[in-house]
Records
---
Amino acid sequence: MKKDDCIFCKIANGEIPSKTVYEDEYFRVILDLGPATKGHALLIPKEHADNLYELPEELAAKVLPVAKKVAAGMRQKLQCDGLNLVQNNGETAGQTVMHFHLHMIPRYENDGQQIEWVPGKPSQEELEAIKKQLTE
Ligand code: 5GP
Ligand code: ZN
């Protein structure tokens, strides 16, 4: 289903033009208008889902094979040295467009970008408590 007021629904379904680098029945991959690096692309399902939580399982299962195909093309054609996949869910996590999308960010030596976090230093007890919380 499409959502009327969603810009990525319109882009994914071709109602708003975009620089499309891949398209199939379920997805469109477009160049990001505010790229982190050359070739920064967004893999967008044509069906609306706000985020990963809402994405139907069948569609979720199709995301990575498409990403893998596009990643191979990026490596071959852009000669990038690496690739970051980034996927934000919720405002707190940095999501600004509330239609699921996977960032594909080709990386180049000395590209000046940082996709990093400050590592914590949890004790074994803290790790154990989190493990319990997640598995019990
Ligand atoms: P988020 O922060 O939600 O994970 O990422 C949204 C991304 O969409 C941003 O990187 C932003 O540059 C990109 N973006 C927002 N609006 C448009 C648009 O209309 N067209 C394209 N190609 N990218 C967009
Ligand atoms: Zn949408």
---
Amino acid sequence: MRIGILTGGGDCPGLNAVIRAVVRKGEGQYGHNIVGYRGGWRGAVEGDSVDLTIGNVRGLLPRGGTILGTSRTNPYKSEGGAEKVKDTLRSDNVTALIAIGGEDTLGVAQKLGKEGVNVVGVPKTIDNDLSGTDFTFGFHTAVQIATEAIDRLHTTAESHDRVMVVEVMGRHAGWIAAYSGLAGGADVILVPELPFDIQEVCNRLGHRHRQGANFSIVVVAEGATPAAGTMELQTGEVDEFGHVRLGGVGNRVAEEIESRTGFEARVTVLGHVLRGGTPTAYDRVIATRFGLEAIDAVNDGDFGKMVALRGTDFVRIPLDEGVSTLKTLDPKFYEAASVFFG
Ligand code: F6P
């Protein structure tokens, strides 16, 4: 069988480990041929592909990014895009497609599946906001990098009596902010799920400093939003899936803290640093297992499914379930982290 594979959306540490696992088991154990589409759905629309073999996926396990490249192309946004994907698969003799991506990429896979394409999805996002799976690969790496940064910021914050605002990724969900904030001992964590009142943030910091602390760490998810009428934010460009380009809330939070409390504040926007570089050992392991389960699903003809991690098991669930709702931050987790605020 010829099997296609593509990586869509933002890149994520562990993508190459998934590709390697699919090829190693697909070719090595099942005797299939694997073809990679370059640049996410763009490659499937345009027929831009590369043959993947055991030979050319060697050395991929620790490598960040994706050798296939990625994009936020949405075939359903261009005239006849979905038909072009089907034409490409037909002319390449590809009978099944493994799509590795987040809500947008897998949303396209789900639609194509309903139109008769044999698809299997692998959930990918550092944001960890896909429902149906306990964790996505890449999240652990992002949390590790953010935590190391927060640790480093502690000592410089302490030396200068400053408030350090750390902005991390997390468009709709505050998983990275909450996990790294808890692991790094943040004094306030702002997440998209809970609109914040900047004055309350300042009050907490004021209280902490009156108790004797000379510095504070505030972790802000990029998608955190102020409660209505409390603080203005700028908005940016919109992509093909309708997402606004974020980045900027950290700066606004720091400005307000400085002007309202008089404490000197600095901002560090971690942004794409969280997505780059080598995956942690844990992410290499789960990415590999996601890939192995995906190729098993294809080999079994079990289509329209997304591979999911449940506890320590890798299972297959309907793609519909995986992309139906976003998995926002568990309030119990936030409550645990907030014990250490202020
Ligand atoms: O992949 C998810 C994500 O990392 C979000 O956390 C972030 O908002 C977005 O991607 C950034 O996308 P881009 O790299 O296209 O700016």
